[in-house]
# Entry
Amino acid sequence: MPLFQRTRERIGRVRALIGRAGQALLVLALIAFLLTAFVRDLWQFPRSAAWPSVQGEVTQSRFYMDDSFSVDFEYRYTVGGVTYTGSRITFFEYAVFANRVQNERFIDAHPVGTPVEVRYDPRDPTRSVLMRTIPLEQLWSPLLFALCLTTILLSAVAGVVMRWVMKGLRAWLPLS
# Structure
């Protein structure tokens, strides 16, 4: 049996089961999910400028490599006598911590026990962030991400519209 033949057969059965409409909906749902995360960060980023800050402490700080380069990072902070745990380092983390050097540099600068300034949402103290800024040299990444997602979404919509227009033209202009 050829390499990956069973996997190809299973994928073929799944495609046949959900059809083209299901595949399109799956792709659109994935794009919507990613776009929602990006828009959420865009919404919270300017609002967090007014968030108060408290002193916190790093409780977990580890760099590891699996499919990519990642950090396992947590901090603890207290608001109104209640202790919270946070893990958000900055908005647009997928851009700021995109490579090994950035991850290692951050972890080296923030070992367990390091005091940190934590900004928290006064309406919901469970929402917090350490760094409210994005280094200028890394700002291109979230913008490029948004541009790619928008291009994919607009291309999908344009394809559907063109297919609909062509279907209507074929009904009016019988082509041999």
The chain has a mean pLDDT of 80. The chain is about 50% helix and 25% strand.
